[in-house]
Design goal:
Structural class: alpha+beta
Radius of gyration: 24 Å
Shape: globular
Helix content: 25-40%
Bound molecules: zinc ion
Distance between the termini: 21 Å
Number of strands: 19
CATH topology of the largest domain: Aminopeptidase
Strand order of the largest sheet: 1-2-6-3-7-18
Number of helices: 12
C-alpha cells in the first residue's frame, strides 16, 4: 500500500490540490451561493475523475454532493465531510491571507485546512491510491459532502431523511478529529446531543418603584430561585427523570475513562482554578466530558445595570440555557421534564421557550469491531497508539443517522492540538495530511478483509 502514497510527485500533487481547494472562500455564514456551487462542482469533477457516479442531493440550502464508487464487495463505507468553512475574521490576526494557503515550517496555514478540507481531501486521495494500486476498490465507498456544517447543518436532517436508502452503509467515517496535547492521533466516536431553551419570568404588567419591593414580586428573584431549583451546587441536575434514560457505561467505556489522559490539573491551572468541578483525576474528568449530561446557564437578562442608579423592581427577566445530552437521552423528552419541573416546583408562570431544533446524542460503542480496525490502521501508520475519545464535548449532526443505530460512526482528521480550527492562523502539519490519507486507505483494506 505504502508505495503510491510515498512517491514525492504524488505527495506534491496532493498538497497542491488541497491548496487549490483551500483557495475557495466557502464561508457558509456569508450566503454566497456562487462560491458554494463552484466548490460543489470542483468536488463532483474530482470524484468523477476517479470513476465515481455523482449527483447533487436535493436540498433547501447549499449544494450537497453525493458520490459513489462500487468496489469488489458490497460492504460499504460512507464518508461524511463538509466543504464550507468558518468566517476568517478578525483578518488582522492572521499571519498570512486565510484564502491564500501558505506553508511555513512544515505547516499549511489556511481557513479550512483542519476543518474540514484537509480531512475531506484525505478521503479522496486514499480512494485514489487504492484505485491506482489495485485497479479497483476492495469495498464500496459513498461520499456525502455538505456545505452548511459551520452554520449548524440546517438542511442535513431533511436531506438524509429523503435519501435514507442511498446513504445506507456498513460504517461511516465522520469529518474530523485531531492529535491530542501529547501528539497522539485520536478518533472521536460520538457527539453530545443538545436541548436549548429560554426561561422567561413576568411578575407584573410593568416595572415598579423598588420601595414597593416588599409588596410586588420581583421577576429576577423569581427566575433565579426557579433556576436554583434545577441544579445543585455540584452540578447535579435536579430535574426528575433527567438521568433515568442515560445508558450505563460498558466495561470498555469504564476502561477508556480510566486510561485516557485528561490532564485535569493542567486544565484547571490554565483557567486559574485549583480543581475542576468533578475533581482533577482523569477518570472523573473523562466521565464528565464523555458520559455526563449537563445543564448550563448561558446568560441572564433583566432589570437595570447601566450608569448611575435606578431603584427599580423589575417585572421581567429571562435566562438562556442549554442541556448537553448523552447516550440514551432525547431532547424532546428533556423538554417535557423541564416543563413538568417548573409546574411541580411552583413555577407554572415561568414560560419555557424552546430555541433551535433539538440535537440527539450519537455514540458508537467503544468496543465495536470497526473501532478496532480504525485503531489498528492508525497505530500502523502513525507508529503510535490511537486514543479513543468516546464523545466530543460538543454537539454535531451525527444524529441524522439515528435511524441506523447499528452503523458505527468514527471521526478522523488531520489536525493537531494547535490547529486553531475556527480561529485565526488555522493550520495543519503537512505530514499529518499524508498520514491520515494512508490511515484511511488502510482502513478500507482492513475493513474489506475483516470477517
Ligand atoms: Zn467541521
Amino acid at each position: 500500500m505504502a508505495s503510491y502514497l510515498d512517491q514525492d510527485s504524488v505527495r506534491q500533487g496532493h498538497l497542491d490540490e488541497l491548496i487549490e481547494f483551500l483557495r475557495l472562500p466557502t464561508i457558509s455564514a456569508r450566503n454566497d451561493m456562487s462560491v458554494m456551487e463552484q466548490a460543489a462542482d470542483w468536488l463532483m469533477r474530482r470524484l468523477q475523475g476517479l470513476g465515481a457516479e455523482t449527483r447533487l442531493l436535493d436540498s433547501p440550502g447549499f449544494p450537497v454532493v453525493y458520490a459513489e464508487i462500487k468496489g469488489d464487495s458490497d460492504r460499504t463505507i460512507l464518508f461524511y465531510n463538509h466543504y464550507d468553512v468558518q468566517p476568517p475574521e478578525p483578518l488582522e490576526a492572521w499571519t498570512s491571507d486565510p484564502f491564500e494557503p501558505a506553508v511555513r515550517d512544515g505547516r499549511l496555514y489556511a481557513r479550512g485546512s483542519d476543518d474540514n478540507k484537509g480531512a475531506l481531501m484525505s478521503r479522496i486521495h486514499a480512494v485514489e491510491a487504492l484505485l491506482k494500486e489495485r485497479g479497483s476498490l476492495p469495498l464500496t465507498v459513498k461520499f456525502l459532502i455538505e456545505g452548511e456544517e459551520e452554520s449548524g447543518s440546517p438542511s442535513l436532517p431533511v436531506v438524509v431523511e429523503r435519501h435514507r436508502d442511498l446513504l445506507k452503509a456498513d460504517a461511516c467515517i465522520w469529518e474530523n478529529a485531531r492529535r491530542d496535547d501529547a501528539g497522539s492521533p485520536t478518533m472521536t466516536l460520538g457527539n453530545k446531543g443538545m436541548y436549548s431553551f429560554e426561561l422567561r419570568a413576568r411578575t407584573a404588567s410593568a416595572d415598579s418603584h423598588s420601595g414597593k419591593a416588599n409588596i410586588y414580586p420581583n421577576a429576577i428573584w423569581r427566575l433565579v430561585s426557579a433556576l436554583a431549583s434545577m441544579r445543585d451546587p455540584n452540578g447535579r441536575v435536579l430535574i426528575k427523570g433527567f438521568y433515568e434514560s442515560v445508558t450505563p457505561l460498558s466495561a470498555s467505556d469504564e476502561e477508556i475513562c480510566r486510561s485516557t489522559p485528561a490532564n485535569g490539573a493542567a486544565q484547571a491551572r490554565k483557567l486559574g482554578l485549583e480543581t475542576l468541578v468533578p475533581g482533577n483525576d482523569d477518570y472523573a474528568v473523562n466521565r464528565a466530558l464523555f458520559y455526563t449530561p449537563s445543564l448550563n446557564i448561558q446568560g441572564i437578562t433583566g432589570g437595570y445595570t447601566g450608569p448611575g442608579h435606578k431603584t427599580v423592581n423589575p417585572a421581567t427577566a429571562m435566562a438562556r440555557l442549554e442541556c448537553r445530552l448523552v447516550k440514551g437521552q432525547d431532547p424532546d423528552a428533556v423538554a417535557e421534564m423541564i416543563s413538568s419541573h417548573l409546574v411541580s416546583h411552583g413555577y407554572p408562570d415561568i414560560e419555557l421557550v424552546s430555541k433551535k431544533a433539538g440535537a440527539w446524542p450519537s455514540y458508537t460503542a467503544t468496543d465495536h469491531p470497526f473501532v478496532q480496525i480504525v485503531q489498528a490502521a492508525g497505530a500502523e501508520v502513525y507508529g503510535r497508539p490511537v486514543v479513543i475519545l468516546p464523545s466530543s464535548p460538543g454537539t454535531g449532526p451525527r444524529f441524522v443517522f439515528k435511524h441506523v443505530p447499528e452503523m458505527p460512526i468514527v471521526a478522523l482528521g488531520v489536525g493537531h492540538a494547535d490547529s486553531r480550527a475556527h480561529a485565526p492562523d488555522e493550520n495543519i502539519a503537512v505530514e499529518d495530511q499524508f498520514l491520515t490519507t494512508k490511515q484511511v486507505a488502510r482502513i478500507m483494506e482492513l475493513y474489506a478483509s475483516a470477517g
